[in-house]
Amino acid sequence: MSNNREKVMRPVGVALLIGVVAGVVGSLVLANGWAPPPVQAAKTTLRTEVRPGELDDYYGFFSGGHSGEVRVLGLPSMRVFKRIPVFNIDSGSGWGITNESRAMLGDTYVGDTHHVHGSYTDGTYNGKYLWVNDKANNRVARIRVDLLEVDTILPIPHTQGSHGIFPQRAPHTEWVILNSEFRAPLKNDGRGDPVDASTYTGVHTIIDAEKMEIIAQVMVPTNLDLAATDYSGRYSFATSYNSEGGATISEMLAKDRDYLVVFDWDRIKEALASGKFNVVDGIKMLDGGLDSGLTLYIPVPKNPHGVNVSPDGKYAIASGKVSPTASVISIEKLADAFDGKIEPKDTIVAEPEIGLGPLHTTYDGRGNAYTSLFIDSQVVKWNIQKAIDIYGNTKPGDTAVVDRLDVHYQIGHTMASMAETKEADGNFLVALNKISKDRFLNVGPIKPENDQLVDISNEKMVLVKDEPAYIEPHDCIIVRRDIIEPIVKHRPRMDEHPLAVTESGIERDGKKVTVRVTASAPVYGLQRVEVNEGDEVTFIVTNNDEIPDLAHGFAISNYNINFAVGPFQTKSVTFTADKPGMHWIYCTNFCHALHLEMRMRLIVKAKA
Ligand code: RUQ
Ligand code: CUA
Ligand code: CA
Fold first, then answer.
1. Ligand 1 atom closest to Cα of 360?
2. Cβ-contact 489, 567 below 8 angstroms
3. Could you tell me the pTM of the whole model?
4. Distance CA 450, CA 436 (A)
5. Which CATH architecture has domain 2-37+56-484?
6. Does ligand 2 have an atom closer than 6 angstroms to the CB of 521?
């Protein structure tokens, strides 16, 4: 039996390695009727397996959807290395529980993260920041790449459904723009007639990337879904599926064409400089209406979803969603359209039919586009120049489509390696499928999603692996590993933190007690802390271990407090000592052979 099994399993293993997709029964058939799928003709020439001890070639930064987090993966292994808490609470790091993170999160600790994008210099990632949106509570978070931790959370007023987000790509990221997917009343205070949807507005928010402040908001009469910027630093783009201004699904589907909205940053800067704005709630509000001159409304079919700019900077491609087409907009022609020399529609240079339910498009840097087809459950590869060449003059048999790959199933986003930069390398693509159905062991009604890795280095796409993903990583970017350089300690010098504890001790000021504690394996700097019931207690904990990759934990029994403190990191927590008694404070991170002994007592003396 074991011999038999080996014989059968080996070819299967090899087949899986070189990427097999097929539903046809092959020549090897087991007694129970199961047969390995036949080997596809196309082979991958890339390294698709990462052996134990080897490192990946790419970082993947995936949004976490419902979890409100951002995930860090390696490609091609698709291993998850880190989950960066953003809009959620995470005990593993104490995010949302410590004073430092609560100062950013407040009491709002659910989020809905969709799109992660990085900071740019001259059209490629510079490895400094990542940004991610919270669609549910209308916030934008910035992540420092050297720490892979959040450093700022910015609430965005006047918006609902904060969705498409994109940083400026050239000369470097000074602005980050954010779209409001849902139109809403600007003054949303329940006064007037909040039911009358004709009074709602869409908002394109411009954020200062360094200061994390709102520079201005451009108001538009339509909704704004996905976002992109061009490669010159002049334009941003937004798809709009509700040009109807509807509030119900049938209203939003009434027209055959909606818009790709283009924002002209030169004109926006002029308007800001010449004071052409109103100030509402302290924010400069610009009119971006149809006749404002700041915007261009390009009619594209129908309820478009994604917009992605090709790595050569020439085209913005909007995916049709309800239409089986993608619309190719020539960025070069936009200036003439803004100047009124041509019609907005004349910027469209191709509209190929590619399949059902096109959502997002990515690129290989060799002139091909790859569009996710939700309804067809496919990635379709098509040639942009071919689509332009046959536009308006398509003869029977003419098609821009080069290849199709079945994915499993219902694909949302798709993203190729470095595809959102001018350094798109055309190696890998990830298909982020919403439904995995039968691809994994059954885990009940809510099954994982399926992020599939695809080799796109050859003419034909090759499926390399399936990776289950917890709901729901909407989108990702794939970044060459040499660009990302996280540091090993939180600061070069521990005492650079304003609160850093070099000597443990207890201070009392009336009912306020401040406890400073060092953590160094396997001891805290104090063995016992005594406070009175009702005291407001602040613990400041510094990990002053010199060793990289050694975190200590800090949990207070029964007090809803548990956080980790990384090398040279300082964290604090403030709480009311409302539970009298003896409560062990203990290290939650296995740090030393005597880790279990790394604890101290908190004595809360009962009121007399
Ligand atoms: S969306 S499945 Cu939130 Cu990025 Cu398109
Ligand atoms: Cu410190 Cu365990
Ligand atoms: Ca519509």
1. 5
2. yes
3. 0.91
4. 5
5. 7 Propeller (2.130)
6. yes
